[in-house]
Amino acid sequence: MQKIKNSFNERSHIELQNPLIRSNFRRAMDGLMEKRKAQFPDEAELSRLRDLAAAIRQNALAKLPELLEQLETRCRQNGIQVHWAQTTDEACEIVLQIAQKHDARSVIKGKSMVSEEMDLNRFMEAHGIECLESDLGEYLVQIAGETPSHIIMPVIHKNREQIAQLMADKHGTPYTDDVNAMTQNARALLRDKFMQADIGISGVNFAVAESGTLCLVENEGNGRMSTTTPPVHIAVMGIEKVVERLEHVPPLLSLLTRSATGQHITTYFNMITSPRKPGEKDGPGSIHLVLLDNERTSMYSDAELRDTLRCIRCGACINHCPVYTRVGGHAYGAVYPGPIGKLVTSQMYGMEVAGDLPTACTLCGACGEVCPVKIPIPDLLKRLRQESVEGHAVKQAGARKKLIEAMVWKTWAILHRSPVLYRLMTWSVTRMRWMIPAKMGKWTISRQMPAVASRSLHERLEVLHNEENKV
User: Fold this and answer.
1) Which helix (DSSP H) or strand (DSSP E) does residue 132 occupy?
2) Which of 193, 364, 411, 437 is the most buried (most CB within 10 A)?
3) From residue 7, how far is each of 133, 358, 366, 381, 395 by CA, in Å?
4) 201: how many CB neighbours lie within 10 A of its CB?
5) Count of H helices and E strands in the chain?
6) Residues whose CB falls within 8 Å of the CB of residue 138, separated by 6 or more in sequence, listed in order
7) What single-letter DSSP state applies at residue 308?
8) Are 329 and 338 in contact (CB under 8 A)?
């Protein structure tokens, strides 16, 4: 698993000093929001579809243990070898053992966020096995020596000119910012890699328990090439991606594509049920499915936080988040950025390490409004915020500040529950305005401290009422 470095506060301040990052994200996010909006002109239809999708995901989570067992049974019957990994280290070791068993020296990868969780590229290369990304965005991030800044569009933090310069520097080809020319340059390199690779690795968008089918959603064809051209296919998947029946996939797919990139449907939808059979002309000779836990059972064990596992990784909450738009994905310091990243990362790494992420939010509610499977993201973030103050994080560095903040808000709650105490507080504040500081921590670095009135609203209303009675 990749490690979180520094705090969100430190990372976000660095990103905010880069005006190019803000302009790149602002332009991209505006476009994605408009595309999604255009795909859902009928609010009633969208509401019904979201209700259905949420019910499908809730049903799958309610039956998760038995569905995973059913998935394993069906996959084995179909000829797919199934492996279980509790941690990312175990998952990496499983992939390495499969590669060594087949004397593999090169791996070609389709897009997979679970493989990013595993930090699989670095692990395989450390053991002498080339691991090349074939998704164009992931490939650009890889040759730049960076990590994805978005779960759907990994290189969204770069504009066309930056990508053109990157490809010219790394490929040694003449500079061109023509999109078609850049795509052809990358394709020329990757096509040979597909043909030479010993193993293809992919993610899984949905796994159907009743049939043992692995579903892959993509636009570029790299996923299909990665899963059919090499002689061995390894699929890595988080255990929450299972659905009960094949008929549950279309509603989720419809919402996924329209929410993610504003497309009615993606170019490719791959359904993988078995290795190549006698007489078939393409497909791998063997398929392995690696099911990764990585703290997902911990999320599952909490009745409220379990909703985090509903996520279908569309990225809609990220695209609509005002914080993400201004600081970008790398400010979050982990695989999953944005609103869903704050939930997933803080639970995967623990509140002691990532407890500051849930506070990196304005609680505007946009993420919850656009989530296609109706995850109550704002409510879950508030739950985790409370834990960061009252739970384990209080014992860590910065605990004194968080403890003081908690005491302030508890005092505020007490004062506002008692009419007598509330009136006493407002009377005192209005009579002793001169004692209120002009600055109040970081909040007033970019804001002016509100002026306190000479009399409270209740007092002013009483004066008006008395004057009316006199008249």
Assistant:
1) strand 130-133
2) 193
3) 29, 12, 24, 17, 16
4) 31
5) 22, 10
6) 109, 111, 148, 154, 155
7) G
8) yes
Residue that is written with structure tokens 């310069």 in the block: 165
Q: Kindly state the tokens that stand for 363.
A: 């609680």
* Token pair 């695209």 in the structure block, residue: 319
Residue in the block written with tokens 């995850």: 375
The single-letter code of the amino acid at 436 is I
Q: Please give the model's pTM, rounded to 2 decimal places.
A: 0.86
C-alpha 310/C-alpha 373 separation (Å) is 7
Q: What is the pLDDT along the chain (471 residues), one digit of tens a residue?
A: 566 666 888 888 888 888 888 888 888 999 999 999 999 999 999 999 999 999 999 999 999 999 999 999 999 999 999 999 999 999 999 999 999 999 999 999 999 999 999 999 999 999 999 999 999 999 999 999 999 999 999 999 999 999 999 999 998 888 998 888 888 888 888 888 888 999 999 999 999 999 999 999 999 998 999 999 999 999 999 999 999 999 999 999 999 999 999 999 999 999 999 999 999 988 999 999 999 999 999 999 999 999 999 999 999 999 999 999 999 999 999 999 999 999 999 999 998 888 889 999 999 999 999 999 999 999 999 999 988 877 644 444 455 566 777 788 889 899 899 999 998 988 888 888 877 777 777 777 777 878 888 888 888 888 888 887 776
CA 406 to chain centre: 28
Tokens of 433: 């305005």
Taking residue 457's Cβ as centre, other Cβ atoms within 10 Å add up to 9
